[in-house]
Amino acid sequence: MTMEQINVGVIGTGWCGGIRSRASAESALVSDLHIAEINPERLEEVSAECRVASATTDYHTLLARGDVAAVMISATPEHTHYAIARDSLNAGKHVLLEKPMSLTLSEADELVELAKRKNVKFTIGYSQRFNPKYAFVHKSLKEGTIGRAVSAIVSRHITRSLGDRISGRILLSPAAMEATHDIDFVLWCMEPARPIRVYAQSGYGVMKEKNGLADTVSIVVTLDSGVVFTVSAGWTMPPGYPNYSGTWIEIVGTDGMLVVDDTHRDVILNTIDRGIELPMSSMPGEFVGHVFAGPMYNETLHFLEAVAYDRPVMVTPEQARQAMEVYMAADLSVATGEAVSLPMTTAQIAQAAPV
Ligand SMILES: NC(=O)c1ccc[n+]([C@@H]2O[C@H](COP(=O)([O-])OP(=O)(O)OC[C@H]3O[C@@H](n4cnc5c(N)ncnc54)[C@H](O)[C@@H]3O)[C@@H](O)[C@H]2O)c1
Prior knowledge:
By secondary structure, the chain is an alpha/beta fold. The protein has helices spanning 15-26, 40-50, 59-63, 80-90, 105-118, 132-142, 160-169, 174-190, 207-211, 296-308, 317-336, 346-352, and strands at residues 6-11, 30-36, 54-56, 70-73, 94-97, 122-124, 149-159, 195-203, 216-223, 228-237, 245-253, 256-262, 269-271, 275-277, 286-288, 291-293, 340-341.
């Protein structure tokens, strides 16, 4: 098969955008890498590290380049996602957008429609689908290894420093920012079943005083297949490593059960200076010399391959929109104390939108 190299852009080259830039720069699929970043020091740093073809502080300049086929959008704060994605799709680029795809469902719907109209690939960074342990769960369920799925539990916690960083830039809940990954993952595993009801409650602790947000959220989702799944997510764990995350998954089926320990207790680093740490445990992952420990590198390559070889993307925008409706329903359920039936009504959607 012949393959033409593509030129790609990364908009927002902080933590995740830095990973996406380096993965692109290292890929044989990519000819030229272009970056846009409003922080001049970071722009300089990533330009040098990734030997970029062009660097700008204005993403419109990047989008105006006719030779750039695809862009990855990794900017923060999260309210930037919708406008940058809209402009990128309008410029005819294939787009990988970090979650959340937007702040409201109507913006998400608009982006889904726009991508269709422009006939470009559009995907959202639900990176955990590229974690081999998660892929194993998905494969097992698709192959019926544990029979028919009955229920699932996912517990996810990240460190307080990261929780503070995320909640310091935008007031989105742990449902929108953390549980979202697990909602997407379980919905993907349980397809074609669709969610019909969501009930959620929040636990308030150290975050409340800082910004009014919850420390943890517990979400119960009922699917039309009868499967019930629970996602419990929090962001106030003490430090274990920079940006540490720990996840535990249990899936019950009619003929078996799957338990996945993704708590990253398999490598223990103990130093006089910093005590015990659990490395290679952040959600996107990290470079370890010549290899990458974590899902974001492969996720980036998958997107580049989808564009270069004209293959379908792993996470469709419709799936991301469905995950978004579930976490918004969870936030609404927390606010009202009532279960929320899906699809949400127009009034509920308006009520669930962040203010
Ligand atoms: N999939 C995952 O595992 C995962 C993990 C962490 C974060 N995320 C998501 O990825 C996104 C990025 O998170 P991060 O931790 O990399 O953020 P970050 O703050 O480290 O990086 C964001 C960068 O965007 C830049 N920026 C802001 N506005 C811009 C603009 N208009 N044009 C160009 N650059 C701009 C900022 O200067 C910053 O360098 C978040 O929305 C988050 O939800 C996903």
